[in-house]
Design goal:
Distance between the termini: 64 Å
CATH topology of the largest domain: Sulfite Reductase Hemoprotein, domain 1
CATH superfamily of the largest domain: Sulfite Reductase Hemoprotein, domain 1
Strand order of the largest sheet: 1-2-5-4-13
Largest sheet: 5 strands, antiparallel
Helix content: 25-40%
CATH class of the largest domain: Alpha Beta
Number of domains: 3
CATH architecture of the largest domain: 2-Layer Sandwich
Strand content: 15-25%
């Protein structure tokens, strides 16, 4: 591994493959198709930074003509850095009191919390001091740099209600109460495709840091180091079991582990302006799907300085001003992005598509109206947490429907707020040009249900049916130009065969003339495949597509 002194002597215009790999520990990376343009990922612990720091980042971006995006871990990435500037910019960032150290690679990534930590109406424990302890331990301990089995994501929240769910983290310390004491229950093993599991551990606030150190040492010593596809914390728990993992942690932890307390977690809909504990206000600036430019940064920084407000970045990729005396601000948000996570897209080595641009295929007005949580990732790694949102999408290449090039895998039904379940795959691929109509129909079906929250709609209606049936139901509605109401499934304790028979009868009753019903098999796969290709296959190239301003036509 390159020491910091060796790092400064690297020839960034002639890097070897090993150099590029270990630069990840410095938060520096390139894409395969832009090897001479670098990205610098900044650690912003708890998403907190000063107006001066934020303004300086804008200055650097202006000077070097860089692109700026906010990450889904409340960090900042600077894109488009040229090889002869990377070392200078790295030094300037560090001199500013920020760092990119260990923000990429097999390290503890930026540690996150709720954006209203310590100041919101629902805050019981401020986690920022604990996060800074963890941050200092990571930055000053060379033992683990780039040497963990895989990356580790960590979240803490001392809030009863959070803007975003944290159950996708490897470790989540969630507000709990035991014997009249506030503390944290520990959940472990989360990732994009899995929810973190209750570890049956309760920690008082002063014990969290020692537990964290014990965990890091345990994962370092005992974490799996075989195939990179199977060495996350989740895979370790799958292999040895949660109890065995706890026993290993106990060998490194100074106190006896205590059983969990009562989880204190409720779901709340947060508005763009919120009143804080001290009577001041917070304002959420909705970014252009995590993209911000230098002018926006300067405007926000100047306003925060003038009004003595605090700047925080949320894991929802939006910017928050806390401590305002009034609930209004003199600038409007540029996009309807409040509840939509969009990954870095083609600015990342793993994504084929410009995901932020492809948000044009989404029914943005409907999503904003109902505050539906959407995660749009550019690959299966899932930086937009597509399994942990109401509607999850992965932008992928496809030729399943002719020369369509772009498509999206669609997930729905996650019970994400309390870490109950991830979303299930509805369609393995939908051409992007048909995505708007499909999602519009899904949202219309939600509106017809009468539920005020999409997650409740998932719990009480969507998740009572098989994915095969739901796919056929939506396709049948699209084929017949309808939007029939999906009734609650009141049947209980049915076998798989009985459930299939019930769902098949529903389709036959409501769509008696649909030809594809003849192809229905035990999982609806053949019928779904035939009908989707009939609806979505494009002859030749995609037409010039513009999303309709109104809903899909229905009867």
């Amino acid at each position: 591994m390159h020491a910091r002194s060796e790092f400064e002597n690297l020839d960034f215009e002639n890097l070897g493959e090993g150099d590029r790999y270990y630069l990840q520990d410095f938060g520096i990376f390139t894409t395969d198709f832009l090897e001479d343009e670098f990205t610098l990922r900044l650690r912003i612990p708890a998403g907190r930074l000063s107006a001066e720091q934020f303004s300086f980042i804008g200055d650097i971006a202006t000077k070097h003509n860089l692109h700026i995006i906010l990450t889904a871990r409340a960090g900042i990435q600077l894109h488009g850095i040229e090889s002869h500037n990377i070392l200078e910019i790295f030094k300037q960032i560090n001199a500013l009191g920020l760092t990119s150290w260990q923000s990429f690679g097999d390290n503890i990534r930026n540690i996150v919390t709720d954006v209203y930590d310590g100041r919101g109406q629902y805050s019981e424990i401020e986690t920022y001091p604990i996060i800074m302890q963890m941050q200092e331990f990571i930055l000053k301990n060379p033992r683990y740099v780039g040497m963990l089995p895989r990356r580790v994501s960590i979240a803490l929240s001392g809030n009863r209600a959070n803007v975003s769910s944290f159950f996708a983290n490897d470790i989540y310390f969630a507000l709990a109460q035991k014997d009249e004491n506030f503390g944290f229950n520990v959940y472990m093993g989360g990732k994009n495709s899995e929810v973190a599991e209750d570890a049956d551990i309760f920690l008082l606030p002063h014990a969290v840091f020692d537990f964290f150190k014990a965990f890091v040492e345990t994962f370092y010593l005992h974490g799996p180091r075989t195939s990179r596809a199977k060495i996350r914390l989740f895979d370790m728990i799958e292999t040895v079991g949660m109890n065995a993992l706890k026993e290993l942690i106990q060998t490194q932890y100074v106190n006896k582990l205590q059983s969990s307390g009562a989880l204190l977690l409720e779901k709340k809909e947060f508005s763009q302006s919120e009143i804080l504990k001290d009577g001041t206000y917070a304002f959420c600036y909705h970014t252009d799907f995590a993209r911000v430019n230098a002018d926006e940064i300067q405007q926000i920084s100047e306003y925060a300085t003038k009004h003595k407000a605090e700047i925080r970045i949320g894991v929802d990729q939006n910017i928050y001003l806390l401590g305002l005396q009034e609930s209004e601000t003199p600038f409007a948000s540029p996009k309807q992005s409040a509840t939509i996570l969009a990954c870095a897209g083609n600015l990342c080595p793993y994504s084929f598509w410009s995901i932020k641009n492809e948000t044009i295929y989404l029914p943005l007005e409907l999503i904003a109206k109902h505050r539906i949580q959407v995660g749009f990732s550019g690959c299966a790694k899932g930086c937009a947490r597509h399994h942990h949102t109401d509607i999850g999408l992965i932008g992928l290449k496809t030729n399943n429907f002719g020369d369509t090039e772009g498509g999206a895998r669609v997930f729905i039904g996650a019970e994400h707020s309390h870490g109950v379940s991830v979303g299930r795959m509805l369609f393995s691929m939908v051409p992007l040009v048909h995505l708007h109509a499909l999602l519009t129909l899904i949202i219309i079906t939600y509106e017809q249900s009468g539920y005020k929250d999409f997650e409740e709609f998932s719990i009480h209606i969507l998740n009572k049916y098989s994915m095969g049936f739901l796919g056929m139901w939506l396709l049948a509605n699209l084929q017949t130009n309808q939007s029939l109401k999906l009734l609650p499934n009141e049947t209980k304790n049915l076998s798989e065969q009985e459930q299939f028979a019930y769902e098949k009868e529903l389709l036959e009753r409501f769509f008696p003339k649909l030809e594809s019903l003849d192809l229905i098999d035990e999982n609806f796969f053949k019928a779904t495949s035939a009908l989707s290709k009939k609806l979505w296959t494009v002859e030749g190239k995609d037409p010039n597509y513009k999303p309709p301003m109104k809903r899909v036509a229905v009867r």
